[in-house]
């Protein structure tokens, strides 16, 4: 990028998908961008996400529309090269526990009512729509959402960072806990834990679950509902699975290299938090999750965990995204959301537009941080 004296200087704090995506979108619009992050890129939620791309189930209409736009942007990226192993659209398959067929039917009816592609299937109908599933694990009925997909966020971050560097972005790794600097009530830039300062016309705080803590010194309150969760990556195994599965005992998605990514919440009580901020879980519980996943896959392969990561899953206190400029601190913007994988590309697009032009995008109207004031 040619960084001219007149280009807008923007500092982005946070090397997760929201920070990286917004940084790249800003560079595309001619901004001069510095991206600072505490340690490495994708070191937090982005590095341990199920990253199922969807708007399944029920939620507010603005959130649903934003998620549909999010999936749309991934479809555009997918169409530019369908051969990428880290971004695929194989649909999503979900089912509930035995005795809950009416809950599944009601979810399907809701999805149909908002135009979301949703097929209610008996177990024996699953093989005709998606391969590799052990349908004997499905107790009653299942929903197949053909339009859904998945992404491996660390690969997407690598992909976007190639463009970031090609366009002349400045990356500051190991910045420690950076903070927003303010003078006369207006954002002036970012200070790192080591005392370095980066002057900027605008700052984006995209610090995942740490976002409320980063804006708190500015007098801004954003409630934090982020739970602790785990993502397991398995060793490679032969399989034909293409869909992301959300089931009563395991969430499973294909992952590059013939591996699987596994997630759920029933094991949360087995997670121990330590004084240094790290978390641990007994190895046996991780294997139990892999065993639950194996039951869902045709042939019930012996799944072995290769690695697992535990940490906070960013979720704002009211469950809805928080996007936009802080009313109290002009020039300071935030991006803090659940489902940041689905929203990663669209949020970067819309927020960068707001930062560059000052024009507020109508799709973000209900997600402003000011709603907590
Ligand atoms: C187990 C799990 C499953 C998920 N499943 C899905 C799913 O199926 N679909 C979906 O859409 N989403 C899913 N998500 C959510 C999605 O992954 C996250 O919303 C998204 O990755 C968040 O990205 P982020 O950039 O906001 O935050 P993060 O990835 O957490 O990145 C924040 C970055 O900011 C840095 N940082 C924090 N504080 C500071 C500071 N003071 N100074 C400098 N740097 C700082 C951190 O080190 C980190 O690098 C899941 C998440 C998890 C954990």
- For the secondary structure, the number of strands is 22
Read across the widest sheet, the strand sequence of neighbours is 6-7-5-15-16-17-14-20
Order of helices and strands: EHEEHEEHEEEHEEEEEHEEEEEEHEEEH
For CATH, the homologous superfamily of the largest domain is named as FAD/NAD(P)-binding domain
Shape: globular
The CATH architecture of the largest domain can be given as 3-Layer(bba) Sandwich
What is the total number of structural domains? 2
Structural class: alpha+beta
State Rg: 21 Å
Amount of helix: 25-40%
Unique bound compounds: flavin-adenine dinucleotide
Distance between the termini: 38 Å
Average per-residue pLDDT, rounded, comes to 97
Count, helices: 7
Pick out the low-confidence regions. Answer: 1-5
CATH topology name of the largest domain, in short, is FAD/NAD(P)-binding domain
Strand proportion, as a percent range, falls in: 15-25%
Class of the largest domain in CATH?
Answer: Alpha Beta
Oligomer: single chain
Largest sheet: 8 strands, mixed
Task: Write out key terms for the chains shown.
373 residues, alpha+beta, FAD/NAD(P)-binding domain, D-Amino Acid Oxidase, Chain A, domain 2, 2 domains, 8-stranded mixed sheet, 6-stranded mixed sheet, globular, disordered N terminus, binds flavin-adenine dinucleotide
Account of the protein in words:
The chain is an alpha+beta fold and 373 residues long. It folds into 2 domains: 9-47 and 154-221 and 317-372, FAD/NAD(P)-binding domain, CATH 3.50.50.60; 88-149 and 226-312, D-Amino Acid Oxidase, subunit A, domain 2 (D-Amino Acid Oxidase, Chain A, domain 2, 2-Layer Sandwich). The protein contains 7 helices and 22 strands. An 8-stranded mixed beta sheet has the order 6-7-5-15-16-17-14-20. Helix 1 (17-28) runs parallel beside helix 7 (340-357) and helix 2 (61-80) crosses helix 7. The longest helix has 20 residues, at 61-80. The protein is globular. The two termini are 38 Å apart.
């Amino acid at each position: 990028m040619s960084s001219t004296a007149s280009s807008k200087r923007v500092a982005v704090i946070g090397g997760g998908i929201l920070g990286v995506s917004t940084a790249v979108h800003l560079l595309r619009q001619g901004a001069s961008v510095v991206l600072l992050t505490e340690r490495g890129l994708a070191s937090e939620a982005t590095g341990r996400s199920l990253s199922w791309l969807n708007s399944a189930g029920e939620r507010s209409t603005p959130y649903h529309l934003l998620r549909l736009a999010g999936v749309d942007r991934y479809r555009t990226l997918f169409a530019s090269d369908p051969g990428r192993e880290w971004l695929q659209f194989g649909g999503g398959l979900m089912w509930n526990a035995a005795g809950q067929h009416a809950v599944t039917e009601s979810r399907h009816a809701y999805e149909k009512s908002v135009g979301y592609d949703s097929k209610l299937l008996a177990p024996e109908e699953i093989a005709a729509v998606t391969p590799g599933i052990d349908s004997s694990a499905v107790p009653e009925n299942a929903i197949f959402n053909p339009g859904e997909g998945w992404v491996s966020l660390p690969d997407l971050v690598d992909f976007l960072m190639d463009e970031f560097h090609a366009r002349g972005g400045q990356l500051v790794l190991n910045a420690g806990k950076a903070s927003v600097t303010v003078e006369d009530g207006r954002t002036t830039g970012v200070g790192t834990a080591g005392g370095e300062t980066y002057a900027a016309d605008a700052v984006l705080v995209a610090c995942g679950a740490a976002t409320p803590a980063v804006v708190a010194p500015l007098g801004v309150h954003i409630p934090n509902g982020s739970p602790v969760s785990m993502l397991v990556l398995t060793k490679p195994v032969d399989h034909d699975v293409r869909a992301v599965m959300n089931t009563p005992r395991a969430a499973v998605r294909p992952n590059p290299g013939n591996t699987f990514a596994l997630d759920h919440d029933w094991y949360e009580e087995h997670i121990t938090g330590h004084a240094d901020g790290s978390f641990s879980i007994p190895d046996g519980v991780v294997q139990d999750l892999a065993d639950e996943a194996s039951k869902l896959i045709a042939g019930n392969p012996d799944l072995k965990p290769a690695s697992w990561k535990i940490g906070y899953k960013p979720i704002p206190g009211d469950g809805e995204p928080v996007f936009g400029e802080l009313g109290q601190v002009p020039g300071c913007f935030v991006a803090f959301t659940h489902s940041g994988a689905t929203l990663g590309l669209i949020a970067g697009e819309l927020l960068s537009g707001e930062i560059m032009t000052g024009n507020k995008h109508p799709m973000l109207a209900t997600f402003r941080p000011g709603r907590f004031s």
